[in-house]
Amino acid sequence: MEKPDLKKPKTWAGGAPAVASSMKHVIGRDGPLRGPRALLELNQIGGFDCPSCAWPDPDDERSVAEFCENGAKAVASEAMPAHVDRDFFARHSIDDLLARDDAWHDRQGRIAEPMVLREGATHYEPISWDEAFQLLASELNGLESPDEAVFYTSGRASNEAAFLYQLFARAFGTNNLPDCSNMCHESSGTALKQSIGVGKGTVTLDDFLEAEVILCVGQNPGTNHPRMLTTLEQAVKGGAKVVAINPLKEAGLTGFAHPQKVSGMLGKATSLASTYLQVRVNGDQALFRGIAKCLTADEPFIAAHTTGHDAYRRTLDATPWDRIEALSGISRSEIESLAGLLASGEKRVITCWAMGLTQHRNAVATLREIANVHLLLGAIGRPGAGLCPVRGHSNVQGDRTVGIWEKMPESFLAALDAQAGITSPRRHGHDTVASILAMHRGEAKVFFALGGNFAQACPDTSFTAEALRRCRLTCHVSTKLNRSHLVHGRRALILPCLGRSEDDAGRFVTCENSMGVVQMSRGTLKPCSDQLLSEPEIIAGLAEAVVGDTGKVRWRWLAEDYDRIRDWIEAVVPGFDAYNRRARQPGGFYLPNAAKERVWQTESGKAEFGCDDLDAFDPGEGRLILQTLRSHDQFNTTVYGNHDRYRGIANGRRIIFANPDDLKERGIGPLEPTRITSYAEDRTRTVEGFLAVPYDMPRGMAAAYFPEANELVPVGSVAEGSGTPTSKSIAIDIAP
Ligand code: SF4
């Protein structure tokens, strides 16, 4: 890889550079017709849903270009020709492909046909669909227990594919249904269920336009949810105050030049955050504890809707300010001024967050603290106010809603059994980390992934690779080549599926976005290969081969017409009444959310204050806290390129950002190669060759891109209560 080039970080996002970058990717990869045509359908009524993040589309009118730069890159990547075929694999051995970087993998194009890696082979070779399903059936039915299989889901799977998949896994006899949500917003679901009774956000896009204050905490929308900047700009122009709470100065939080406005294309940016608090990494619980200490409770709301306020008030009184300031890195006066802002006006406050809050040991406690602040303000379940976990994958919320979870409640399993005529297992299954450990111990022997790039998304890269390599069979349903295909079991399969943008015999699927809107997605592009199957068809073929038609389940019949799958979802999952009719409505429909109506489906039937111990990660004397993050040229583990324009990085992935004084103190100059060592209970982990980049962040912090830095994240280090890997707070040291 070329030597990176460092430029001054940007102070605004969007504008002409975003358009130029989008067009470079789209036309560069798909040519002047296929790519641009796909963009015209992207996020349009009757078009297809963006396969990238889960930021919602406007309920009313949509713009002609209803997408952002990263949505365009995702579509460009998916709309590529199918060059990864038998000839490609004949040219490239596994070892050769392992030596290439992730951006190279993504540039190779779509997978054209089913491929198998036979035991001891060095190259993938073609296989027929039937033979592939038979191979899967022989391995799965050869297991001593269904729990020796793991069925992983990435957030790209549609509701229909996800429902059929969980039905198959449960008909097969296991709840081993880990998903990417285990690694991202599991902490949000856990905390919100405890506090307000629903594991999802409580706001709509319209609420942003009614809010007085919008807090963006532990989130980098400029890269991870770029269309959110349009909403933030509208809100600011409507008089709202945006407050950014993030250790790093991020361009997308400071300013936005709207690329669909002349002023924006000329680089005239709207200032977004009027307050920018560079909190200490994992100092958010302390910050919100401080805010709560300053607030006067909304007594009528508290009395009518909550329980536990008195105990929480005692917790607040018992928490000393110096501890709050030390753990948050924010001064009492800054906290008091923020609390004053939140308590001003009608307290129409929205708090948004992402991984910067969910991937810490105390993540659940931090999110309950945020919910506490909203309960004190009465800022939930009314216009312009509420909680907003921003989902990072297009249908990760929908997958969970239709049954992709290793511990679905009895109510769901009973309804599923009644509808399908099967007996689902009741023993909870493995989440993502438990699946890695089970494979590493040799207890789980078959790994099946519906999308995703498990080997790169997971913590402890080498340990996870060992786990996968101990499997008898690893199988991936994929659109593009990725490293997980190369980190394989004794035998391996790649099953190529249709992309979101491609025509699926005229059928449509549905997805649920961050705000609980379920809407239709129908691809229109000619499939890049005539050997692709849709995700539901692949699952039906697999299920028919492994368990056959069972109970009332006729797999092929269900996969033939997705209306049938939706009828089953309607019968099993609350809130999907008249699913097929409402899915055809322009823009789809909102799923019910009791907390929005101030109905609290908690144990007490009230919204519950949490009184968690105040905590913040301590890396140990002389060490730094590492957080892993995305560059602007990637979506999750898909790397579109090696640039990170907003942070001033060109041509660099093995990069470690740190405070200039922390680097100087260690005798490390800009772009000098470093060795990074992480410290955990079990052992240390070391990576080499990360180039140092001095960056505007508090002392004691560092940041590096995943998947490269996942090697440093201990598999056993997870958030209490949710099991989410603590990828945002790892104890490290850096040496020249
Ligand atoms: S904001 Fe998210 S969903 Fe919207 S176009 Fe961009 S990546 Fe896609």
Could you state the oligomeric state of the chains shown?
single chain
| Rounded average pLDDT | 97
Bound molecules: iron/sulfur cluster
Number of H/I helices: 30
**Arrangement of strands in the largest sheet:** 4-3-16-15-14-5
Poorly predicted ranges (pLDDT <50, ≥5 residues)? none
- Classify the beta-strand content into a percent band: 15-25%
For the record, the CATH class of the largest domain is Alpha Beta
From the coordinates shown, what is the CATH architecture of the largest domain?
A: 3-Layer(aba) Sandwich
Radius of gyration: 24 Å
Would you count the extended β strands for me? Answer: 29
Count of the separate structural domains? 3
Determine the N-to-C terminus distance. Answer: 20 Å
Structural class: alpha/beta
Question: Which labels suit this protein?
Answer:
736 residues; alpha/beta; Dimethylsulfoxide Reductase, domain 2; Rossmann fold; Barwin-like endoglucanases; 3 domains; 6-stranded mixed sheet; 6-stranded mixed β-barrel; 30 helices; globular; binds iron/sulfur cluster
State the gist of this model.
The protein is of the alpha/beta class and 736 residues long. Strand 3 and strand 4 form a beta hairpin. Helix 6 (129-140) crosses helix 26, helix 7 runs parallel beside helix 26 (535-546) and helix 14 (284-294) runs antiparallel to helix 17.
Explain what the structure shows:
A 6-stranded mixed β-sheet has the order 4-3-16-15-14-5, with helices on both faces. It has 3 domains: 1-78 and 185-390, 3-Layer(aba) Sandwich (Dimethylsulfoxide Reductase, domain 2); 84-182 and 419-497 and 533-576, Rossmann fold (3-Layer(aba) Sandwich), CATH 3.40.50.740; 624-735, Barwin-like endoglucanases (Beta Barrel). The relative contact order is 0.17. α14 (284-294) runs antiparallel to α17. The chain is 36% helix and 16% strand. With 736 residues, it is an alpha/beta fold. It has 30 helices and 29 strands.
